[in-house]
Amino acid sequence: MLEGVCKLQLIISYNMKKVGFLLIAFCIGLVSFSQNNKTANSIIPKPVSVVAKTGNYLLPKQVVIVAENNETVKKIADHLASIIETATSSSAIVLTTNSTRVNTIRLSIVKSKNIPAEGYRLNVSPSGILLQAATPAGLFYGTQTILQLLPPEINSKTKINTIKWNIPAVAITDSPRFGYRGLMLDVARHFFTKQQVKSFIDDMVQFKFNMLHLHLTDDEGWRVEIKSLPKLTTVGAWRAPRTGLWGKFTKPAPDEPKTYGGFYTQDDIKELVAYAKERFVNILPEVDMPAHSLAAVASYPELSCTPGNYQVSSGDPVMIWPEGGGHFYGLVDNTLCPANEKVYDFIDKVMTELSALFPYEYIHMGGDEAYHGFWEKSETCQQFMKNNGIKDVKGLQAYFVARVNKIINSKGKKMIGWDEILEGGEPSKNAAVMSWRGIAGGIAAAKLGHPVVMTPNDYVYVDLYQGDRVAEPPTYSKVLLNKAYKFDPLPKDVEPQYILGGQANLWSERLYNMRHTQYMLWPRALATAESVWSQPGSKNWNDFVQRVETQFERFDAAEINYSRSMYDPIFSPKKLTDSTISIGLETQLSDLTIHYTFDESFPDYFYESYKALLTVPAGASSLTVVTYRGKKQMGKIIKMPIAELKKRAGIKQ
Ligand code: TNX
Fold first, then answer.
1. Beta strands of 462-569 (E only): which ranges?
2. Average pLDDT in the 508-531 region?
3. What Å distances lie between residue 278 and 73, 121, 273, 274, 282, CA to CA?
4. What is the structure's pLDDT at 486?
């Protein structure tokens, strides 16, 4: 539109040479401004302030990055240089601040009270880029913003010669809302190699996440070498392979080869910690206990209250969550015995080695989903409770948590656990709580004065459905992108000082490969990134969607997988009579049309578009839908059985 106006002005100016030149300059300026405005406003997470200007900084053939004479800052500059050299045909060199070169990208530490710890100020003009921050972390985030201002192809792993590497002129001031901005990766259920974890870190830092929570142990595997407990990785890291529908697998035969798995040696961990640190990421290690501990129990069966032959789970059922609700229960005792001193010796050994490996101030001890039925039946537990004046098994769990807390503190670390650690008795005040069953646990903990990380399953569980279950890989409940975008780690009536931040969790019991992992993570983790970095007042769903779409181009260039399920329709069936339903359809995005048919063919935009509630024509057995933006197909073709919709509407068939 802007270009159209400018063309008109050009014609008018035909006979007015001088005015014409001015107008041309004005038009070029306008077009450049509007393009710059679009690019500058496509950043995720949204910066605090963005002022687009006219003109561009064109990457020269030889890019010069001038960096503070400081090892950490030089590394940031090297990092930027290596990305530029990978994707563009420019070369990039790093000089120190003494250099008087002009037309450079200058990274500068400034001692200014106006720039918060991880914040930065970025000024791009046609004659150079100035990035200022009070800390190296701030500079690092500034470079991530610079990368998002470059064309999407900057994410390419191979050189691209056909692109004009322009960075739009802009002034950005930015800083995070929360200090804890996390992603959790479950490396226990599915083992991710060291290299995969590194690329996970590379991906997350683009969106200014700074915490990687590694779920290192579970029923399906123990993934970290503990030198004083070698069986944890000779036995606990391996299981019989299974593929298909998780939770329905057969129990491995005792002599079945345990060929699936892996673990990180202590050297691997050191390498990962260093790799993360260079990218301003801390790693939070989690050893999940007392439950989710079958891999440990299979390695050292004496840790269980229930004598038996234990094997690392292959995805065969260990616990049952009754369909339609009800409390979960255990089929196998996957807990460490809280009434056995040997267990605390074991934990002491684990924590001694973990605390030496991970520099982060917290160690996560899990604490979630413990089924206490086996403790109720255990003579040892009952006797122990009597001797220690513990009145019930919940109290026994609280006793266990308190002991673990003491052990962790004795290693110079603080404990963090899932919100169940508040049950049966309050842990000491320095224990932090990770609230996963909604935000209620987090609110309760903050009110008691505990530090809290919010990770509510109904907003940030990126292992859950992101579209209709008939069109997605099987999992549990649903978190659509528009819901994920509504995540606010700071509830209204809670003192902000107790909320460290928020985190999205990627559980991997149903993941078998990296492509699927990325599919679950993106774009929902973008919504989390924005919830933990950006100001809540700047949230705007339609604007976010546009920025997500720009990010899709970047993912394409980087060959990172992502889900397009935000384009798919949502089905709302309602019961009309005992055998009939109406079907409502809607989309998360406001500019899509839904085309549908009951005739079993694959609809396109020539098909009827959805306008009002549908009723099912006699004889129809499925409703097939697809979404379009104009003439462009956006969603996938989804074939929904009518029987499924009737079931959802509560019609018994
Ligand atoms: C609950 S969240 C779990 C995990 C599962 C996840 C699946 C939490 C502390 N425990 O063990 O993988 O749900 O969404």
1. 499-506
2. 98
3. 10, 21, 9, 6, 10
4. 98
Crossing angle of helices 266-278/194-205, nearest 10°? 20
Closest CA to 430 of 405, 397, 395, 399: 405
Over 50: is that where the pLDDT of 4 sits? Answer: no
Q: What are phi and psi of 573, to 5 degrees?
A: -80, 145
DSSP calls for 259-289: -EE--B-HHHHHHHHHHHHHTT-EEEEEEEE
Structure tokens at 134: 């009070």
Q: Hey, how many other C-beta atoms are within 10 angstroms of the C-beta on 247?
A: 15
Q: Is the pLDDT of residue 1 over 60?
A: no
CB-hemisphere CA count at 13 Å for 581?
25
**Cα distance between residue 41 and residue 49, in whole Å:** 10
For residue 482, report the distance from its CA to the centre of ligand 1, in Å.
22
- 282: tokens are 């801390």
Tokens 């001015």 belong to which residue?
A: 22
Which residue is closest in CA terms to ligand 1's atom 4?
507
pLDDT tens digits, one per residue of 450-472: 999 999 999 999 999 999 999 99
Question: Can you tell me which atom of ligand 1 is nearest the CA of 476?
Answer: 14
- The span from the first CA to the last CA of the chain, in angstroms, equals 55
- Which residues, listed in sequence order, are joined to residue 363 by a DSSP beta bridge? 415
Kindly state if the Cβ of 476 falls inside 6 Å of ligand 1. yes
pLDDT at 2 over 50: no
φ and ψ of 641, to 5 deg: -65, 135
In this prediction, residue 36 has a pLDDT band, given cuts at 50, 70 and 90, of confident
pLDDT tens figures, 177-211: 999 999 999 999 999 999 999 999 999 999 999 99
Ligand 1 atom closest to residue 420's alpha carbon, by position in its atom list: 9
Task: Enter the tokens of residue 522.
Answer: 């993106």
Report the alpha-carbon distance of residue 48 to residue 174 in Å, rounded.
5
Amino acid letter, residue 508: S
- Residue 415, classified by CB atoms within 10 Å of its CB into exposed (0-12), middle (13-18) or buried (19+), is buried
Q: Specify the pTM.
A: 0.95
Residues 264-289: what's their mean pLDDT? 98
* DSSP string for residues in 192-257: PPHHHHHHHHHHHHTTT--EEEEE-EETTEE-B--TT-THHHHTTTEE----SSTT-PPPPPTTS-
Q: Contact, 534 vs 490, CB < 8 A?
A: no
Cβ of 426 below 6 Å from ligand 1: no
Q: 617-631, pLDDT tens digit by residue?
A: 999 999 999 999 999
Distance CA 33, CA 455 (A): 39
Catalytic residue at 361? no
Atom from ligand 1 closest to the CA of residue 437: 2
The protein residue whose alpha carbon is closest to atom 7 in ligand 1 is 507
- Pull the structure tokens for residue 372: 């206490």
Residue 5: its pLDDT value, please?
A: 46
What are the counts of helices (DSSP H) followed by strands (DSSP E) for the chain?
A: 19, 28
Q: Per the residue annotation, which of 369, 488, 556, 644 is the catalytic one? A: 369
